[in-house]
Amino acid sequence: MTEIAYRLPQRRQLVTALPGPRSQALAARRKAAVAAGVGSSVPVYAADADGGVIVDVDGNALIDLGSGIAVTGVGASNPAVAAAVAEQAARFTHTCFMVTPYEGYVRVAEELAALTPGAHAKRSVLFNSGAEAVENAVKIARLATGRSAVVAFDHAYHGRTNLTMALTAKSMPYKANFGPFAPEIYRMPMSYPFRDEPGLTGEQAARRAISRIETQLGAQTVAALVIEPIQGEGGFVVPAPGFLATLSEWAAAQGIVFIADEVQTGFARTGAWFACEHEGVVPDLITLAKGIAGGMPLAAVTGRADLLDAVHPGGLGGTYGSNPVACAAALATIDQMRELDLCGRARAIEAAVLPRLRDLAAETGVIGDVRGRGAMLAIELVREGGEPDADLAKAVAAEAFSRGVVLLTCGSFGNVIRLLPPLVIGDDLLAEGIDVLGESLRAAVG
Ligand SMILES: Cc1ncc(COP(=O)(O)O)c(CNCCCC(=O)O)c1O
């Protein structure tokens, strides 16, 4: 694998209490200026970041196992991405593609057509955020099918806009008191092997959902089925083999648009360009964001040309969608993913980390499930009887942070510790991060 040259020392180093004085001062200023509704996982403020390290404003170097929620796979200051951003910004930062178009958009769309699953004719439309992409994928499916019902799944997360909140399962903090929500959204049971009845196969779980759709809605009323191939915020739920393929085949037979939401799973994160590939599923539409542009805000709906071209001229767009600087970042990011073989690196991360998580499970007895693919891995923490232990997950993340590791939790029950390291993280630093996870788990369990 290509050697990576880092700009910052790839080491964990704490030089003040956490948070240090500068972070504390920033926290006070934030309180007076930033909405209280915006949360942060850690109480320190970033000053620099490179590879697997985030340096805070007090000089503390932390191991990053979050990648800004699965975004900085190529690193938070990848030199090729930074150069592409600077070069484009020096030429023009914006003309609005709906006014004066530019090549960057076209090149990104060409890349997405080539990279996403399926050899069929594809089109893309670019946006700024994952939620915007999901919103528009549903718009396209409804227009193309003339139907209005949309199916989402238990534990799903699709965004914070009104429609994507309706698609998202967990109320607090994403939906509570923000309703009423968009109509015609229907929630079906997910394949959640750890919490399903033992032995339920992926196909059986899919048939369970299909039966409810047919009984409660009627397949012919359904425009789209929206699903994350591996659920992210809902707990890194990897459906049983066959679940996605059974749903996809059934949807095709019913004229239902199969939308794979790969905002969190896309762009090498799971060890393939897209997680659908692991299950041999070719989605009709795929929504993309996060890892696409090395940290610059860009999102996309890519998929069947007949669906996307069904929309009337002017029916899709937005002022900033496909910002040219973000497009330049995306092109550089995709090149870096190829050059550094980040799909291979994600698979290597899985091979190095999953066995260690399983050892931790055997040692501690508080890990009910170890799961994930590539560099999207998780442990689900439980009490004696298997009930979710969100308090323990919180305590582990806090303990890890106190030791200089940024670790994220997730899950419908808040009891999942997730690992999302930058795909460019070095082996030694990653191993140290997992050491700290183990130390933190032991300390939290007591
Ligand atoms: C599958 C999937 N679809 C859609 C989205 C939404 O993407 P945006 O770019 O945050 O709008 C996500 C964003 N996930 C992180 C949200 C963090 C938070 O807001 O608390 C996702 O994971």
UniProtKB/TrEMBL annotation:
* EC number(s) from the headed UniProt entry: 2.6.1.19, 2.6.1.22
Keywords assigned by UniProt?
Aminotransferase, Pyridoxal phosphate, Transferase
MF term (GO), any? pyridoxal phosphate binding
InterPro entries given for it? 4NH2But_aminotransferase_bac, Aminotrans_3, Aminotrans_3_PPA_site, Class-III_PLP-dep_AT, PyrdxlP-dep_Trfase, PyrdxlP-dep_Trfase_major, PyrdxlP-dep_Trfase_small
> Which reaction is catalysed here?
(S)-3-amino-2-methylpropanoate + 2-oxoglutarate = 2-methyl-3-oxopropanoate + L-glutamate; 4-aminobutanoate + 2-oxoglutarate = succinate semialdehyde + L-glutamate
A Pfam family recorded for this sequence: Aminotran_3
Q: Which cofactor does it need?
A: pyridoxal 5'-phosphate
Q: Which family does it belong to?
A: Belongs to the class-III pyridoxal-phosphate-dependent aminotransferase family.
Q: What is this protein called?
A: (S)-3-amino-2-methylpropionate transaminase
Q: Which organism is it from?
A: Nocardia terpenica
Identify the taxonomic lineage of the organism of origin: Bacteria, Bacillati, Actinomycetota, Actinomycetes, Mycobacteriales
